[in-house]
Amino acid sequence: MGSGETMQQDGGGAEAEQLAGALLTIDLDALAANWRALAARAAEAECAAVVKADAYGIGIEPAVAALARAGCQTFFVAHPGEGVRARAVAPGATVYVLNGLPPGAAGAFVSAGLRPVLGAPAEVDEWCEFAATRGGPLPAAVHIDTGMNRLGLTLAEARVLAARRTEGPFFQIALVMSHLVAAEEADRPINRLQIERFAAVRALFPRVPASLCNSSGLFLPQSPCLDLVRPGYALYGGNPTPGQPNPMRPVIGLAARVIQVREAAAGDTVGYNGRWAARAGCRIATISCGYADGIPRAASGTDGRPAGLGGVALVNGQPCPFAGVISMDLITVDVTDTPPGAVKVGDRVTLIGGPLDLETVAARAGTIGYEILTSLGRRYARRYLGGA
Q1: Which of 52, 56, 96, 291 is labelled catalytic?
Q2: CB 300 within 8 Å of CB 332
Q3: Who contacts 269 (Cβ-Cβ below 8 Å, separation ≥6)?
Q4: N or C: which end of the chain has fewer CB within 10 A?
Q5: Where would you find the membrane-spanning parts of this chain (predicted)?
């Protein structure tokens, strides 16, 4: 992690770190640097920031504050409550709510200074009706589905909407957007198809800013940056180009405290259901972290697992595999191959950091880095670096 001013969330400082089972370190300078790098890649397009899911687990308030200081002026959240939190930290920013407009919520959105991303005709109708009562247009984004089949107006509904704009009072379409299905797989034909479909959508809404790119979309050869890009995962250190070197700086590190070291005889089983058996001379370190802290139970170290699966901790820089099933509050680690006495109660072992980057940790649990990030536990002591 980088150096710089250190901030503590939820108070407590050094004492909170001493008492907590694990320490999550969050480098806000790296977060800001990642945004600046993506903004440079976007060239003339505006670079927004997706801060949904508590800013992918690192905390909306510190993340939005750091990104706003770096120059970010537009934020995307999933839920209105997240938008209220972002708005409180960046009162001059534009905040879009990706999950649309809940029925009857138009007034609350306006009061909170939030812009809905409208993705269904009923949402469009409600926003139009509310705009009429206000005596003037209200800004909102419109989401057009180009292949995800999840949220958004159909292409046919988009054509109806485009015609409707000319027929009378209407809201201000501040942004027209869609979402890429497989941007992290550059050779997938769906990318080209979606870009072509979205070009047709843009023609329906001339002079309206357009947005298609997520984190990986910024790295597609076609570079469809348009007017605004919406990175999320890459901001937080995730690799937007799987299978290639990660161009982003790491943002988080996670280290858990050793609370016991013990020996196990050959054949002794470790953990629930006895799914891991010790070899001769085995030493086990138990660390104060578990699936209640966001470490996937699927990362358990059990006998017979294929190579490359099962969690790993770095103990004084040495990779040591998880031993047995991860429990709610504890993980057992096989430290047999470390030097005698090298692992002591009170030491911290690394669960995320260095060679154990998000992609590696996720792959060993059979999941994706997005899930690792957004599951970061609330019991961790959190140390924020930089952000001044």
Answers
A1: 52
A2: no
A3: 275, 276, 277, 278, 324
A4: C
A5: none
* Total residue count of the chain as it appears in this document: 388
Is the Cα dihedral 189, 192, 198, 199 positive or negative?
negative
pLDDT digits (tens, 9 = 90+) for 212-234: 999 999 999 987 899 999 999 99
Known binding-site residue numbers = 150, 328
Q: Which helix (H) or strand (E) holds 14?
A: helix 13-19
- Euclidean distance between CA atoms 139 and 145, whole angstroms: 20
Write out pLDDT tens, residues 79-123: 999 999 999 999 999 999 999 999 999 999 999 999 999 999 999
The tokens describing 87, both together, are 């708005």
Residue whose entry in the numeric block shows the structure tokens 């969330």: 9
Q: What domains sit in the chain, N to C, each tagged with a CATH number?
A: 29-236 (3.20.20.10), 252-385 (2.40.37.10)
Active site residue 52: yes
CB atoms within 10 A of CB 193: 13
Task: Report the run of H or E that residue 319 belongs to, with start and end.
Answer: strand 318-321
Cα–Cα distance, 50 to 244 (Å, whole number): 23
Nearest Cα to 334, choosing from 257, 282, 267, 276? 282
Using alpha carbons, select from 386, 388, 379 the residue that is nearest to residue 23.
379
Q: Which of 96, 233, 236, 272 is catalytic?
A: 272
Instruction: Report strand pairing: 318-321 vs 312-315.
Output: antiparallel
3-class SS at 347? coil
CA distance 112 to 127: 15
- Give the integer Cα–Cα distance in Å for 352 and 244: 19
Specify the amino acid at residue 2: G
Bind-site residues for substrate? 150, 328
Nearest to 37 by CA among 251, 227, 247: 247
Quote the pTM value: 0.94
